[in-house]
Amino acid sequence: MDFITGEIVGILLFFIGLYGLMTKKTIVKTIMSMSIMESGIFLFYITINYTDGSVPPIGQAQEAAFVDPVPSALMITAIVIGIGVTAIGLTMFMHYKQKHGITHWSRNRNQTGSEH
Amino acid sequence: MLYLLVIGPILAGIVNILFKKRDTRPFIIGVQIAQLSYALWIFVQVRTNDTIFNFMSGVPDGLAITLMADIISSVFVLLTTIIFLMMLLFAYHKEYFNTQFAFLFLVLQGLIISLFLSTDLFNLFVMLEVSTVVVAILIMFNKEKQAIYDGMIYFFVNVIGTAFLLFGIGMLYRTTGFLDMRAISEAIVEVESPRAVLLPFAFMMTTLSLKTAVVPLFSWLPKAHGTPSAPPVVSAVLSGLFIKTGVYMFIRFSAMFEPVIQVQEIFFLIGFITSIFGFIMAMGQNDIKMILAYSTVSQIGLIMIGLNMGSEIAYWGALFHVVSHALFKSTLFLAAGQVYHQYGTRDIRMMRGVLRAMPLTGFAIIFGILGVTGAPLFNGSISKYMISYGSYRPIVQFGLNLINLGTITYFVKFGSILFGKDNRAEESKPPREDLLSELLVFIMGGLILLTGVYGPVSMDILFGYQVEVFSAEYFEKGIVYALMILAGVGIYNGIIKQGGLLDRISHVELTFNAVITSMTGFFLFIAGYLYFVL
């Protein structure tokens, strides 16, 4: 099972999320697919350039190679941004639903949403 | 000290919120003027000395988050500060200029400037993501149903687009070990095979094509830029400036990948298709803002043509077209805002006699139209001339003339609002717009003429590129232009007024899922194309 690495799973998750975005008409599912896609990216980042047996770059221990700290640092930022974006997306959706009762992407911008 | 340009407007926005009980407008204008003079100073510094670098937190080059002002980015920053000063002066007496609006608008300015200055890929991602949020909120500023729907589409499409960029950055970091663009372009030569950077390139180009709104990824743009209830300054900044961040990043990214991947032909073709598609869609619109939004699609296509033609003069012509497009498109959007506020409708068939009702705005619209269609002595003509000078292939010349004819045709339609008889009843007319905004629109219009008459001079000052424009050939093009106006009027009266097929084509819209599907399709297309070419 060597091919199940973090990178491969990350890429798979990214495209699963993309599939959800392409096919699902519900706005909530769009937001969920977006989160799945982002988790795929996070997983990809934190496993790139990882070698077995390396240690976190903390303290003065020199017996093993250090892990590259940059991807993890980037991902902390990206996760925070991801949370913010999800929150804003949900806020927009809730506002839209409560005011206009629409939960689906409509076909035409001049029509109201479908009747589900 | 380049970071002052980024952090200055954001701090000003926060101060503006802290003192929201008082009138902060003079303070904001003051900050804008300081901002403009600092950008000008940096512009002069870059011209006289050399490229300015700013390494954050004292880390050495290559590892630090870097801000860089070179010939191109200093022009873009200067343009940003000029346009924002104009926009804020325009909005000075408008009712939507409140604390929240000023805060968001100033933050947007800081973000746009940092997109132009930063060379760090991850930094660019963060800025793109935050600017997407800010722009989405600005689009739905009036909380109308249509505006919220448009804002949501804009928001989700762009967030997903930036996720592609983030993934591409990760793959590039895995291969090269750098995040700084200049370091990557040095390291990328060492990559053993171009195939290794094929996927990151395809991911990144998908995002940039979305941001520059080329075919088939443009369908979010008219929704976002032409939102009915968004304040005119927001539409003007989005169409005039914000779209240029995509163009700028396209320039930077293709330069970064140039040693291993060249994609000029394919993006040249995409630019052509985008431009033609843009004017066909624009012809059938009746909403004054939608015409301008589709016109942006068409002009961005023209810029992509110039950038990817592979000749120096066309490249600089395209960069000058970025500047001229920023001027005339923001003028036209502001003027359109004034006009529809006066007439109470956005349907151009209902508006007549603008020139008599609001002369200053009317003249600004005339200047804008002459600029965008490339009339002699206006700035559009200089850039379009330079782009067409880049190639002598008959098919390219034919295509460029076709695009210009299309542009003229839908602007004949647009210009029909200027003349005719005003049918509104006398008592239904709202009070006149405030004088400051009227004057501002007119001054913006004047800038179009000014940068056109002094075209070669402004070209030399802005980009340091000498070009001989006013030759016999230039005036030949003037005659061609006059003929095209006649043809455009003919086509407008003969074909477009009838509606029919064109009307139906131009109201085709993609659903949200279709937009994402076309984005995926575009990614697969670029990846597949590169796989076969390399």
TrEMBL record, chain A:
Keywords: Cell membrane, Membrane, Transmembrane, Transmembrane helix
Domain of life where this protein originates: Bacteria
Any single Pfam family the record assigns to this protein: Oxidored_q2
Membrane topology of this protein: Multi-pass membrane protein
Localization: Cell membrane
Keyword Transmembrane: yes
Gene3D superfamilies: 1.10.287.3510
Cellular component, GO annotation: plasma membrane
Cross-referenced InterPro entries: CPA3_antiporter_subunitC (IPR050601), NUOK/Mnh_C1-like (IPR039428)
Principal location class: membrane
Family: Belongs to the CPA3 antiporters (TC 2.A.63) subunit C family.
Name of the featured protein: Multicomponent Na+:H+ antiporter subunit C
Taxonomic lineage of the native organism: Bacteria, Bacillati, Bacillota, Bacilli, Lactobacillales
TrEMBL record, chain B:
GO BP of this protein: ATP synthesis coupled electron transport
An example Gene Ontology CC term for this record: plasma membrane
Keyword Chloroplast (UniProt): no
Membrane topology term: Multi-pass membrane protein
Pfam (any one): Proton_antipo_M
Keywords on record: Antiport, Cell membrane, Membrane, Transmembrane, Transmembrane helix, Transport
Predominant location category: membrane
Annotated ranges, domain NADH:quinone oxidoreductase/Mrp antiporter transmembrane: 118-392
InterPro entries, per the entry: CPA3_Na-H_Antiporter_D (IPR050586), NADH_UbQ_OxRdtase (IPR003918), ND/Mrp_TM (IPR001750)
Localization terms from the record: Cell membrane; Membrane
Alphabetized GO MF terms: antiporter activity; NADH dehydrogenase (ubiquinone) activity
Family: Belongs to the CPA3 antiporters (TC 2.A.63) subunit D family.
Record's protein name: Multisubunit sodium/proton antiporter, MrpD subunit (TC 2.A.63.1)
Origin species: Alkalibacterium pelagium
Top-level taxonomy: Bacteria, Bacillati, Bacillota, Bacilli, Lactobacillales
